[in-house]
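User: These chains co-purify. Model them together.
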Amino acid sequence: MNDNTPLFLRALQGLPVDRPPVWIMRQAGRYLPDFMTLKNKYDFFTRCQTPELATEITLMPIKQIGLDAAIIFSDILVIPQAMGVNVEMKNNFGPFIEFPVRKKSDVLGLNTSNVEEKLDYVFRAVKMTKKELPEHIPLIGFAGSPWTILCYMVQGSGSKTFDIAKSFCFENPELAHMLLEKITHITIEYLKKKIEAGVDAVQIFDSWGGVLSHTDYNIFSFPYIKKINDALKALKPIIIYPKGCWHAINSYSKIGASGLGIDWSCSARNARYLSGNNITLQGNMDPSRLFSPKNELIKLTKEMLNEFGNQKYIANLGHGILPNTPVDNVKVFVDTIKSFSND
Amino acid sequence: MNDNTPLFLRALQGLPVDRPPVWIMRQAGRYLPDFMTLKNKYDFFTRCQTPELATEITLMPIKQIGLDAAIIFSDILVIPQAMGVNVEMKNNFGPFIEFPVRKKSDVLGLNTSNVEEKLDYVFRAVKMTKKELPEHIPLIGFAGSPWTILCYMVQGSGSKTFDIAKSFCFENPELAHMLLEKITHITIEYLKKKIEAGVDAVQIFDSWGGVLSHTDYNIFSFPYIKKINDALKALKPIIIYPKGCWHAINSYSKIGASGLGIDWSCSARNARYLSGNNITLQGNMDPSRLFSPKNELIKLTKEMLNEFGNQKYIANLGHGILPNTPVDNVKVFVDTIKSFSND
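Assistant: Joint model of the two components:
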């Protein structure tokens, strides 16, 4: 990489930087008035499946907030859809699958072929966005972890505990592994095509890894994320975000991924200790903290920056930004990071 | 304490035992057919508020499963009710508060007096249960942590993130602390009366401590639990269960509580390390693991026992037992513990 390497990619590669880059999980949406206007006009999957809309939404926070990386507007559940599962996005409810995966015949019936064709709209959105983005703003592509995708496919909706998904795995581990293999296979194909289409880095969201015990995590989630990372790490930098899985930080620091997302339950100090400072860390402000009064928010953001330090670090929230977050506070958060120097 | 001290209390006091005692969070209900019969006959708060029913339900798992401690059938939300908040328990939804606490006037309007009268039905249930219980089976009383009670009172229902409750605290910390003080005050009064009525130990459920960051936990949850513990620890042994708060294990091991509940995200080894082996640990099987085939469940239970060791340990799940858990598997779990010896 030469000196023109964008800040975000420099930090992700562990190269020296003057300040940490910043982006925000779910930055493209929810809290932005222009996004809400589009949301009221087009349903969720129309926004995902129309490259012009996905591009417009992806660029919105870059223009309006000034972040250091863009993330393509899409959803982790395009993968079950591409496998033949009908996923609806219900208002005030979230994802809903009328016929969840529960039996062997359901798993056998899942189709993992023709990703290129079935998710063509994503690849077109990536290409279109790359043309519009300034050169110094990299584009992040993403997918859910196989475990997290299984959670939705089996449970059939969001859940606090994903008890049905877990019981499915514990009652019939062989079938669970068959399903996880299928999801892993299609996810690798999908992310390869996304990289070919132009994304500069990839993030794997293991949003529900935290519902598993530390031992079950090593059976049902870690090995499949590792498999995806192994297949892709030579192509582009990979960020792994295992929410609630502080117990896996050490393992993830050793598999050749470039970045590791940290949630707010883990301190910077613990995360650095557990990862042996082997990997760029990303995070970890509690999204609810963006509702704090501005002075408090500035203080907390500076504390976060001082604790992580400005090298091998990408500033972010510890999970997706919340709806109704005041836009001014998002700007305060981002501007505090952009003017930070702890030298 | 003399040699007649029941096994559960011996373990909780750190006295030598031949095997670890076992009880199960939410053991009185859900998975037991006789409980489901009562559930179909009487609504939730009728069951809580009728001492005869609460006693019958509390004794059910002692007679049918053979656990080493009973826990009084009740709910953490009797506290907001006693403060004048109308809490409904909706089928297939959980707790619902039509008028949640959001403004200063709401907080000021909460009434923390007359606990003895308002929660008289709990104290009568405790007395009645104590009369029926065999002498070697202690009775556990409980309350929610002030933070967890605030979560419900402000959010108005269950939630994955308790974002409204958190924003309330972060936008107006003074008001949040005023509310937490009020809850702490009434909770101490309530637990004192429960101890007077006859409970042998008290568990504080901080079921939603895990939604806070490690720093915010020390602002909004830990100090209030410590205050309750300080007020009661000379009276009866206290168990603190801070779900998802591995970062607080070390602090809790130093405040003179008797027991600390561990969830399944934290290994026994980590929990022993973080607590400096200063305190009896309780936990931590994933409730979903009770859906495993029997041989697997026996193997996992033995692993848990070997990892925690048989001293200063109370076997339990890492959270409440799930509805639909096979009763036979509950027996397998309990019997494996009761026949355990790692000497």
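Chain A touches chain B at residues 158, 160-161, 163, 166-167, 170-171, 210, 212-216, 244-247, 264-267, 270, 284, 286-289, 291-293, 296, 318, 322 (CB under 8 Å).
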